[in-house]
Every structure is written in structure tokens, then in C-alpha cells.
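Ticket #4471: structure export looks truncated?
Reporter: QA, pipeline team
Priority: medium

Steps to reproduce: submit the single chain below to the structure queue and open the exported record.
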Amino acid sequence: LQFLYFIEHIEGTMWVKLLVTVAIGSAVWEAWVRHLAGAKKAGAKSETNPFMNLQPINHYRRRYIWPGVLLVPVRLVLMVVLLLVASFIGFIVVMTGRVDTPLTGFRKFLVNYGIRTCARIILLCLGFHYIVVKGLENRKDDIAPIVVGNHRGPFEPIYLVAFHNLCMVSAAENRWPIVKYGMDALQFLFVHRRGPGRKNIVETICKRATSKGFPQIGLFPEGTTTNGTAIIHFKPGAFIPAVPVQPVAFEFPNSDVDVDPSWVFGVRGPNMGLFNVVLRLMASWHNPMTVTYLPVATPAGRELKDAGAFAERVRRQIADTLKVPTTEHAQEDAILATAALKVDMQPREAVVEWGRVKKLWDLSLTDAKELLNKFSEADSNGDGEISVEDFTKVLGLPPDSQLLDGLFHMMNTRSGGGNTINFREFLSGMAKASGNMTRSDKCQLCFDAFDIDKSNTITMNEFRCMLKLGWRDISPSEVSELFGRISNGEKSISNQQFLSFLENNEQFLILFDILRREGETAAQTEDSSDDDADYRRMHGKNAQLGARASFIRNREKIILEKKTDDG
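Actual output as written to the record:
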């Protein structure tokens, strides 16, 4: 009633009263939305996962009702027009000369006052009206040829393009048709994430960083976008030239109750699409952004030759400024999370802190993807956990193996993890079991171990002899079934058949490699006569010792048969 009384006694026309009503109503609506978002955020479960959007409720959808219904259509149309204008200007610049040399004359004027102005207005369309800038005294464009920063979405590069005379290093897949001419005119450098082009781009960065006439180079060493809760592993490409770099820390305050601009995987859906993020930003009156320029970092000492050490120092400076931790997550985690979507797994289940895994086990991304596929096959209920029964089922082997049970429990490293393992444990355990040698070397060593009589083929007796090391109670039919899978129904397994099978079945390579090492241990056991082996097999307290003794007896029998055949 007081609100209506206040409106009734405002002096002015009906339009003035309407505007005042809308303004007050919008303020009340916004306060209510932020209150709900803050309450939900306070009760949300936190997790250290830089690749998930942590907003616990889709409170931003309320903004689609108001003011989104008013702002989104106007801002969206204006932004599309600006992108087309910037692309048209870029087309003129590209068609009138080369873009792999420093721009001069009217072409440089069009870029600086045409495309960069469009970039600033695009930020306005996204709700970034007033941007708080700190540490301007540290900005040294004439000293630092390279600018590096943390990365949460496409909005940091738009800011750098709008307020710096620089070009960006971007993934080749980001060269979309509507913006490609503008990006070419800005002399962007495009990186193909997989392929020989990565080496060439590092050479180009070094050349531009040490040449005069080119604009500054902007890079995001994380290599992917995060949610800002941590600074992940920095790739060394920006630090290889060993020149001074300008660190910049980007922060989006109150993103828990405002709109989180992070272009990452979403809680409510599998992926936070870029268009979805843009709509959220456009539906808000204002989106805060803070940019902090840190002192220029100059490499010194071993950093002149060790780009990794230089990158780590700059990474910690940015993390300290943002008051967030540094983690061993890396771009490969985002790639695995994307691969998880293709096999109907939750993206968060595939985030394993790749830097730590790589450092410990020297595992390739290709191998990790294959193990992810195997894990998804075993995860029958899709909860991101597998039991020992799931583990044996995907292997197609008997579930009562002591070796298999030991391998599974070796992977279960969580306190209170129960009788299941997650993908991170599965990945680390399989990598640990397989050792650090190459796959082809491991395959050949396994073949040599199974080929007891060194005839370059594996017979049924040799195959059974090796399997008994891990599965003492395995039945003849189960041995025959697995033997037939590898030999394609033939009487013996050739070297090519064996290697081909292991190349396509990583889990058997791990198990066969363990059997190989058990065989080597057994072969070195002293007093391996038949009588002594039988005694240990019948009366030994250690079941594995009995298996090794049985292996020795069968191995000697196979070798003796081979000598008789040769005679």
C-alpha cells in the first residue's frame, strides 16, 4: 500500500510513473532472485572440480522472465550486427594485403578503431558495463610482448582485444565463419590441438615475441576454460621464448549469485553451451568483471632454459592474486570429460587430475581414453563406480581369480571406498600395473613369456601353464574359450595374433604382464624339482607359491616335449 501511495503522488506524466514503477519492481525482483541464489549456494555441496559449473540452481532462468524478456532480444540483435560489422571490416583488411606481417596505414586504423571498438560494445551487450581494473601501474605493453591470464570463457579474449593492441592464440576450432575474417585481421594464431602444427605455432610465437612491429600476443596457458575455483596446469608454450610476460588475473565477483560466465560442464546438463552462457549474461542488468594487472614477470636463472619452471611461477602469482589454489588438473581432463559424455558417463567422473597421473605413470591420452571406454563398459548402472564383479565381467574371465581380486583391491585406494572403485582409481591402478615401458615392448615380452619352448607360437599347454599362475581353478573349457578368441580357432597362437589381441584389449595386456612377471619369479625359484614342487604345492601355506611350483613343473615338461620333438 505504501508503494502504491508513493507512485500515486509522484509528480510528472504517466510515463515517468511507469518508469519509476518498473525500476522499483526490477530492484525488488533482482533482490529476491539473488537471495534465493545465495541461499541455495550456501547449502550446496562443494567439490574441487575446475570443469563443472557449480551453480546449484537454475536461478538465472528467473531473469529470463525479467529483465531478460526486455534485454535479450535487443542485446542479441545488436551483438550479431556488431559481429557482422567486425567481420566485414576484417574482410577488407584481409583482402587488401597480407596479415602475417605487421599492419600499417589504413588497415591498422581499421583494426584498432573498427574491430576493437566493436569488441568493446559487444562487452556492453553481455552486461559488462563497468569493468574494474587494478594494477594499471604494472601494465607494460612496451616491455612484455606476451600477455597471459586465467581462462573462464570467451570474454577474457574479447576484453584483451578491446583494450590491448594484441593478437590472440586460439584453438583452430574457434575460427567460426561469422568471426573468422575479424580474427584473421587481428592476426590471431590458430593452434591445432592434435598434430604437427603445435610445434610450428611455438616457433611463430617465438618469432613474433622477439620481432618489432607485431602486436602483443595474448595466451591462456591453461589451454581450456575452467570455473575459476582453481588455476590448473600451465602449458609451457607461452614461456618458451624466455621473454618478459604480463600476467593478468580475471575475476568475476559474486558469480555464485550473479551469472557464472564459465564455459564448462553444467550441473543441470551435460554441457554448458556457449550460447547458453551468452543468454544468461544478456538476461542480467549488469555482470561484474575485475581485471588485475600483475607486475611483469621476467625469466631468470634456470627459468631461461626451463619454460615449465617459469610457467609455474607465473601460475602461482595469478592464483595468489585470485586467492584460489593451484591444482594438477590439465586440458586433458577436459578432453576426458568430453569423451565421457560419448559413453554416457557423467563428465565429473572422468576428471582425474591429469598432471598428477602423467607425472606418476607417463600415461598417454589415447591409452586413457581406451581405459575410459573399458570402465564405462564395466559400469553397468552408470553410477561412476564398478565392483569386482563388474570388473571380471568386462574381462570375460573367471571371477574367482586370486590375481584378479588382488589387482582390483590394489586399485581401491580411497578411505572408506568400500568394494567399488571410481575411474581415477581404475586409471591409476591399470597404469601402475602396466609399468612405464611402451605398449609394444610389453606385448612382445608377454608373448616371449607365454612361448615357453621358444617356437614362436603358443600352444594350448603353454597357454594353460601361464594362466594357472593367476587362476589355479580355471576350467579347461574356460582356457579353451580364451585360447580360441586369440587364435581365431587355430591350434596355436602366432606372434601376430597374440600382439594384435593385446593391442585391442588393454585389460588383458595388464593381466598378462603380471603373469609374465610371476613366471619370471617362478623360473628363478630354487630347488624346482618335481618332488619338491609337488610338496610345496600340496603342503605350502602360500597358495601363490604352490602356483609357481606348478608352473615350474609344467614349464619343464613343455620344454622336455619340445626337445623330444626336435630329436
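Status: closed, not a bug. The export was complete when the record was re-opened. Leaving a note from the reviewer for reference: The first strand starts at residue 52 and ends at 53.
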